[in-house]
Amino acid sequence: MEITEKIKTENVPKTNAMNQDPIKISVQNLSAYFGKIQVLKNVSIDIPEKKVIAIIGPSGCGKSTFLRSINRMHEVARGTITGKIIFDDEDVMKIDPVYLRRKIGMVFQKPNPFPTMSVFNNVVAGLKLNGFRNRKALKEIVEKTLKQAALWDEVKDMLNKSGANLSGGQQQRLCIARTIAINPEVILMDEPASALDPISTAKIEELIFELKKDYTIIIVTHNMQQAARVSDYTAFFYMGELIEFSDTKKMFTAPAKKQTEDYITGRFG
Amino acid sequence: MYSSSILSIKKFGWGFLTSSTWDPFSEVFGALPMIYGTLVSSLLGLIIAIPLGLGVAVFLSELAPSWLEKPLSFLTELLAGIPSVIYGLWGIFVLVPWLRDSVEPFLQNEFPNSPFFQGAPYGFGMLAAAIILSIMVLPIISSISRDVLKSVPNSQREAAYALGATKWEVTKIVLSYAKSGLLGAIILGLGRAIGETMAVTMVIGNRPQISTSLLAPGYTMASVLANEFTEATSDLYLNSLIELALVLFVITIIINIFARLLVWSTERKWKLSPM
Questions:
Q1: Number of independent structural domains in chain A
Q2: Least confident of A97-106, A260-269, B142-151, B219-228
Q3: ipTM exceeding 0.85?
Q4: Residues 6+ positions from B7 with CB-CB distance below 8 Å
Q5: Does the CB of A121 have a partner CB in chain B at under 8 Å?
Q6: What distance separates the 2 farthest-apart alpha carbons in chain B?
Q7: Does the pTM exceed 0.90?
Q8: CATH number, domain at A81?
Q9: CB distance B177–A116 less than 8 Å?
């Protein structure tokens, strides 16, 4: 009930418009390994610009690994990949990871603000790493970013307090603010709302809806209603393979593959 | 301890702490040289050991590949298990000759006017004690710091990497997350240095004097106790030694309280950290 309603109001493209949208990231034959274990098998997918792409699938299907290989965060966990990921006509493996991660930001499952830093410093942590020190400009950025992250009103009087003092949902929005403060082009979200209560989750979802005007967002989620609510396109992963990638509306109403249908209707996973 | 040192407390009063004469023959006892020796040798030892210890800890927890981490951790922990008298022997046979023949003449040539490097280069002295202490304290600082750094949640590192931090910047964020624990590690090291007896006694030169020169011999409270307790012939002598032990005890407590406060205040700062 709720799903279909939301989809109607969200003005998803009427036809499968994938071919018309400019491509932001093109993943070609991506396989990923941790040691000898293969977690992604030959995944190819074109991510359109300024859309929300949801990635769904049962646990351990390679969703997070897929997300992480896009900004090379898999390397932090000592994973390796084969195949190609093209970001704006450039192979990500040839881009300096430090630069790449400034262009492709990431929000994690558990809110992870820096507890030793104030709210203010959390937001500008990335900018300060870039050597940005102009205090007046930083102040403006903090205000603008926190407003964008729908957090300003709640924290404007406690900018000097530690980021660890906020509630879980506020912390997660702080992490989103921290990510968009460095002005990335793509935001990767790894189950950003799975550790949060329903109200905070709703706030994050609204936020995602706002953010897609400016950013390309790829969101991994366990929650299929959430995928249906926030995304324009949905990719279904199973056992390291991409089973189906299509318009969210089509995916949730008339999936092309039987596995997708079984998963969406809750027959497994 | 107080009641056993009543004789010397009555006789010398506060002068016990401020007088620098320690003369068992004329029964005049002042503890200042030992207090000075204890504090200076420990602090110098820490100054050498902190950068090394933290460096080792950062290397082990953040940079070293896992095949290298295990054996290196084992080695540093092994250092902690060596009896202090062995360090003392090593000090006498290796460190002291090396200091006497190469390091100290070199320092004197390089800094002829520095007050820290005056006097004959005996080898035995404050510098030797500080170096021995730093080696003994190093494994404590590095192994505890390593555990503290390892307990920093990986999500912190990932958060920093995802913001486009370099390896060094990630390490800085990890260090700042762990700072109160690291402070604790350093304080434990300091505690060990202040109380260390045997190795220091063997290399410090055992002369109750205060000298700004690091090459000159000194004395520490623990060394005096170890050296002279069995030889204390008169009651006043014995009482003075026990009072010295009392002073050492009190200093240790003060340092520990101070350390607690320091750790507590950094933890508190997190909640009120300035912009």
A1: 1
A2: A260-269
A3: no
A4: B235, B236, B239
A5: yes
A6: 71
A7: no
A8: 3.40.50.300
A9: yes
Provide the shortest C-alpha distance from residue A249 to chain B (in Å). Answer: 31
**pLDDT tens readout for residues B244-275:** 999 999 988 988 888 888 777 776 655 443 33
- pLDDT tens for B65-120 read 878 888 888 888 888 888 889 999 999 999 999 999 888 888 888 888 888 888 88
Query: How far is it, in rounded angstroms, from Cα B89 to Cα B96?
Result: 10
Q: Please name the amino acid found at residue A217.
A: I
Which of A100, A112, A121 lies nearest to residue B156, judging by beta carbons?
A112
Confidence of residue B43 (pLDDT cuts 50, 70, 90): very high
DSSP designation for B93: I
Q: Which residues of B touch A114 (CB under 8 A)?
A: 156, 159-160, 173, 176-177
Q: Where are the domains of chain B?
A: 35-227
Question: Which chain A residues touch B179 with a CB distance below 8 Å?
Answer: 116
B63: contact with A, CB 8 A cutoff: no
A37 lies in some domain = yes
Q: Is B67 left (phi over 0), alpha (psi -120 to 50) or beta?
A: alpha
- Partner-chain residue, chosen from A102, A106, A116, that has the shortest CB–CB distance to B273: A116
Cα A132 from chain centre: 25
Lowest average pLDDT, out of A129-133, B176-180, B229-233, B264-268, goes to B264-268
B275/A175 CB distance under 8 A: no
Boundaries of domain holding A161? 2-264
Q: Is residue A269 part of a domain?
A: no
Residues A72-102: tens digit of each pLDDT: 988 888 888 888 898 888 888 888 888 899 8
Cβ–Cβ gap B173/A114 under 8 Å: yes
CATH class label, B35-227: mainly alpha
Is residue A194 within 8 A of residue A222, CB to CB? The reply is yes
B67 interfacial to chain A (CB closer than 8 Å): no
The pLDDT value recorded for residue B19 is 84
A189 belongs to a structural domain: yes
Is B163 in the A-facing interface, judged by CB distances under 8 Å? yes
